[in-house]
Design a protein that fits this description.
- The chain is an all-alpha fold.
- It has one domain.
- The chain is built from four helices and no strands.
- It has helices spanning about 15-60, 65-75, 85-115, 120-130.
- The mean pLDDT is about 95.
Length: about 140
């Protein structure tokens, strides 16, 4: 058997259109990875601030109050960018660039290929798999 209808290009769609949508999808995948790194940055920055707070408290308990005060005044709870904690950076990215990218990519697929995803990759799979061999099925459950 071959790929499902959702992974088959509609009639009349040329190679360049499928390739263009494939590149846009690949770019979106890179944006998804960047977003993951942004969330990791958010989590790591928060962890650092709370761990710093514990260290500052330990400095205070060890009798280094002046140094603890300086850390507390200048660094604990500080914005990482002008006026922003990391959650604000994540929200701005999600609501702006990320949301627009997702919307435009979906609109392009809807307009050009009826919303079908990963056509380029599906065609690569079909071209590269060994038809009739176990482990090379087009879809789950194919014999």
């Amino acid at each position: 058997m071959g790929p499902s209808e959702e992974h088959t290009r509609p009639d009349g769609i040329d190679d360049l259109t499928v390739e263009a949508l494939g590149n846009i999808s690949e770019a979106l995948e890179a944006v998804e990875i960047a977003r993951g790194h942004l969330y990791a940055f958010h989590r790591l920055s928060g962890t650092a601030d709370f761990t710093l707070g514990r260290g500052v408290q330990q400095l205070r308990e060890a009798g280094h109050g002046d140094l603890a005060d300086r850390f507390e005044r200048e660094l604990v709870g500080r914005n990482v960018l002008d006026g922003r904690w990391t959650f604000q950076i994540v929200e701005e990215y999600d609501d702006g660039y990320y949301a627009l990218f997702k919307s435009l990519e979906a609109s392009a697929r809807d307009e050009l290929v009826g919303g079908r995803r990963h056509l380029y990759e599906a065609e690569l799979k079909e071209a590269r798999r060994t038809h009739g061999r176990p482990g090379h099925e087009a879809e789950p459950g194919d014999d």
